[in-house]
Amino acid sequence: MTQSNTVNRKLILAQRPVGAPDDATLRLETDAIPEPAEGQMLLRTVYLSLDPYMRGRMSDAKSYAEPVAIGGTMIGGTVARVVKSNVKGFEVGDWVLSFNGWQDYALSDGTMVTNMGKNPEAPSWALGVLGMPGLTAYAGLLKIGDPKPGETVVVAAATGAVGSQVGQIAKIKGARAVGIASGAEKCAYAVDELGFDACIDRFADDFAEQLAANCPAGIDVYFENVGGAVFKAVLPLLNANARIPLCGLIAMYNATQAPEGPDMSGALMSTFLVKKIKVQGFIVFDDFGHVYPEFSADMMAWIKEGKIKYREHLVEGLENAPSAFLDLLEGRNFGKMVIKVAEH
Amino acid sequence: MTQSNTVNRKLILAQRPVGAPDDATLRLETDAIPEPAEGQMLLRTVYLSLDPYMRGRMSDAKSYAEPVAIGGTMIGGTVARVVKSNVKGFEVGDWVLSFNGWQDYALSDGTMVTNMGKNPEAPSWALGVLGMPGLTAYAGLLKIGDPKPGETVVVAAATGAVGSQVGQIAKIKGARAVGIASGAEKCAYAVDELGFDACIDRFADDFAEQLAANCPAGIDVYFENVGGAVFKAVLPLLNANARIPLCGLIAMYNATQAPEGPDMSGALMSTFLVKKIKVQGFIVFDDFGHVYPEFSADMMAWIKEGKIKYREHLVEGLENAPSAFLDLLEGRNFGKMVIKVAEH
C-alpha cells in the first residue's frame, strides 16, 4: 500500500518498548485525510526523517521532551508539499520543512513550518546536512568542542547524519578527524570520500588499540553520540582540557538496566576532574537555535565549495519505517536515514 | 619540639597510603637549615596551608600534578618570612606567600613567591580567602557556574575554605545559596554568619529529603568539591541547563576501589545529556590564573564592605599537621585549615 489521496496512513505508538522496539511497538493505521479549517493547511509527507532521538520519545522516562502518547502518531521531521492552504504565505505545491510525524498527511497552521518554495534543490537535505543533524554537528562541535588547528577530534557513527558532518567540519577547521564506524566499507568511505584522517571499525577485536594508535597525540574533542564501548575506549585517550559535546548515547537507548558493577560513575567524575574536562549535554534547538543562520550560511558555502559531502540512506515506503528505525539504532544505515514516503 | 633556628623539621612522605593516610604515611625528620647561595633566599615558615588536593600528591595514580616522591618533603602553600636574602626585591623580615611545603625552612630563588611586605594585615589569609581557595571559589563559581539572580547554588563543605566563599559569592550575585556541612554547629554558622539561605547536615538521616525540600526550584549550579553521597542526592534535583564546576571529590580521595555495581556511569552521562548539563573539571592555577587580578580586587572590596566573612581553623605546631590533615579529609575542621608553624 502506497500513499494515496483517499486515506491517511500513520504509524502509532502501540506500546512502549522495553529494550529494542519490536513488531508490537508501532502499528500502521489508516484514517481519513483531514480537512484544513480556516487558518490551516494540509501537508502531504514526501520525506520522513528517522533520527535516534525518536527512541527517547517512545519511552516515558523523564527527558527533555514529552513522550509520544500511547495511541499517538510517532513524531518526526518531514519534507512535505502543500495540498490545500488557508494559511497566508503557503500555496498549493509549495515544498515545506515540517513536523508531520510518521504519516502521509498532517494539518498545520504554519507554526514552525519553513517554506522551501516551488522547486528546491535536493529537498530532503533539509532533514540532514542543511537541517537538524547538520546544525547539531556544527553547533556541538564549534560552540562546545571548539577544536583548534592541529587538535584531534573523534566522532563515532562517522558516516551518519551527524558524525559525517562533525568530521568534515573538524577538517575545515584544521583539526585532525578520527572516525569510528561499523565495518570496513563505511570506514573506507569516511577516509576516502569524507576526508577523515582515519576511521576505526568498531567491530574490530583490537578496536581500542587501533583507536589509540590513530590518536598518537591523544584526543582533544570527543563528540559523543554513542556512549558504551566507544566511550570506554575514548576515555583513557582524552587530553587535559578535552571537551565532550554530549549529543547522544545511542548505544544505551535500548538498555533496560544499568550494566553490572563496579560503579564507575565516581571514577568517571574523577577523570573529568584530574583532566579538567568539559562535558556539556545539549539539545540542538533548545540550546543552539540562534546559531542556525550562521550554520546555514557556512554550510551552504561549504557544500558549494565541495568541502562538505553528504550521503542519504533512502528507504522507500512509510510501512518500512519501523524496521528502518531499528537498523538506525543498530548502525546498519549508511548515511542519513530518510524514508521516502511518496513520489514528489 | 617547636620551631628553632638551629634545625629544620620536615614531614616527609614515608609511604604511599592505601585508603586513608595513617601514622606510617608521613615521618617527621630533621636536618640542617640550608644556606642560601647567590640568587637564593632562606624562608622560615609561619603558616602552612592544608588542602584536600594534598591527598592526591601522596598517591602515584596519574593526575594533573607529579606526586611527592617517597622520602620527599610534603608540598604545600605557606606564609613565611625572609630570614636571609640574596634575592633582589626580598629583604630580611619580609612576609611572603611561598610554597615551602611541610617544613620549617626552605630555600627559594623568588620564583612563584609573592612579597607581602613588612606588615601585612592577617597574613595567613593569603592561604585562604585571598589565595588559592578563594580564587578556586570565585573562578569556579563565576566562570563555570555563572549563577544568575534567583538561581539556586548548592555547595558542600559549606564552612570550609572554598565552600564558604562559594556560598557568599553566590549571595553577592543574587542567587540562593544552599550549603551542606557536617553537623548542626557548622550549619548554623553557614546560615547565621555566612548568610546561606539554608544549610543541610550531611549526617542527617533524611539528608536527601532535606536537600530537596530546601531547593524547591531545583538546583542550577552545583559546585562539586565532595562527590559521593552528596552528589547522589544532588543529581535528581539538577535543573535543565545546570552547571557543575568540578573542583574536588574529597569523598573519594581515600577510596581504594570503585563501589559495588551496577555501573551507573552511563546513567550519569545520560542525565547530563537529557538535562543539558555542563560539567567542567578545573585546576585553579592551570585554568584561571589569569582571573587572579579581578578576583583579588573584588574580594578585597567585598571583605571591606563586610560582604565576605572568613574563618580559620588554626592548629598549632608542625608536628600536628598529619592528624590535622586527616581531620580535614573527614570534614572535622571548621573553617580553613591552617597550621601555625611558628610565632611571627
Short note summarizing the structure:
Two copies of one chain form a homodimer. Chain A has 344 residues and is an alpha/beta fold. Chain A has helices at residues 53-57, 132-145, 163-172, 184-192, 207-213, 228-234, 265-274, 284-288, 292-304, 321-330; strands at 7-13, 26-32, 41-49, 78-85, 95-98, 105-108, 114-117, 152-155, 176-181, 198-201, 219-223, 238-246, 278-281, 312-316, 336-340.
Question: How would you describe the overall organization of this protein?
Answer:
The structure is a homodimer of 344-residue chains. Chain A folds into two domains: 7-127 and 311-340, Medium-chain alcohol dehydrogenases, catalytic domain (Quinone Oxidoreductase, Chain A, domain 1, Alpha-Beta Complex); 132-303, NAD(P)-binding Rossmann-like Domain (Rossmann fold, 3-Layer(aba) Sandwich). Chain A has 344 residues and is of the alpha/beta class. Chain A has ten helices and 15 strands. The longest helix of chain A is centred in the middle third of the chain and has 14 residues, at 132-145. Helices cover 26% and strands 25% of the residues of chain A. In chain A, the strands form three sheets. In chain A, strands 3, 4, 5, 6, 7, 14 and 15 form a seven-stranded mixed sheet that branches. A six-stranded parallel sheet of chain A has the order 10-9-8-11-12-13, with helices on both faces. The interface between A and B is large, with 44 and 44 residues.
